Amino acid sequence: MKELINQTQPFQALNPSLTGILMIISGGFIFSIQDVIIKYISGSYPVHEIVFFRSLFAILPIFFIVRMEGGIHLLRMHNTSYHIIRGLLMFFSYTAYYLAIAAIPLSLAVTLFFCCPLFITVLSVVFLNEKMDKKGWVALCSGFIGVLVIMGPDLAAGWSDFSLIHYGPFLSVLSGCFYATNAVCTRKFGIHESGSSLVFYPILTYLLFGGLLWMVMGDGRFATEENKNMDFLLRSWTVPGTKDLLLLLVLGFVAAAGTYCLSLAYKISDASVVAPFEYFAIPISVVWGYLFWKEMPGPIQIIGIFMIIAAGIYVMKKKSYSPK
Known about the structure:
This protein has helices at residues 16-41, 47-69, 80-103, 106-113, 116-127, 134-160, 168-189, 195-217, 231-234, 242-268, 271-274, 281-293, 299-319. It is mostly helical and 324 residues long.
């Protein structure tokens, strides 16, 4: 995320590339804590309640960062329609991602989300008239094949009986697709918007839509015993206990801190240098998944993971894109 952070003087005396790499790894680690918390509490609260409190508790640190960067005037919008569309895309992206985290092993959810650089490249060719050489197309194809390799068991099950297909992998890929669409829209329509506004208004959108979903389905009226797979989306709101409220508070501050680290990394370093290190989030997710839930990707899925990583790094190095 090349957004936010105009004030980088304390870091200018350091090696920009090394500092950027350390910040991108730190941001990935911080966001991995978010993923662990969401997966941990996903059995107790609906996803829209988690999104609401995450955004509510992120507002304060984001305001602090905006003030540090120059003041509230940085939140002025030049293109209101763009901010609305961007906020909706990001809301759908993160909601789908959180649903995926709850449904499938953490490492697979994170890996499938990181196919978004592949979608960014395709959308850039179609809508931004960018060019792609043969090597780029080969990398893209291999990356999407990696996605199919990971999703293979679910696709095979659904081929014989659609009711057996698991929605989790598809939600993770859909999340990456929404994020990629947002990234391309930002490149086309968001060039005159401040970094602070690009961070603040999506969080405000999460807060508003989380509250809207609470009013629509917060009483659990759409939850059914027959649809266990959608329970995380449809269950009723629950008043958080002290422990879970603290976790939700941490979630908000983690979101702000992770955004700060990733944004600063892209501000002080070349994207082609730091972007590949975003994939550090994948091995972290493998570690967390094993430690907390005894999850471990199988041999075939590991092959798919490496295919996605290799393809993603290639297109990010070539196009200087960032997934986050």
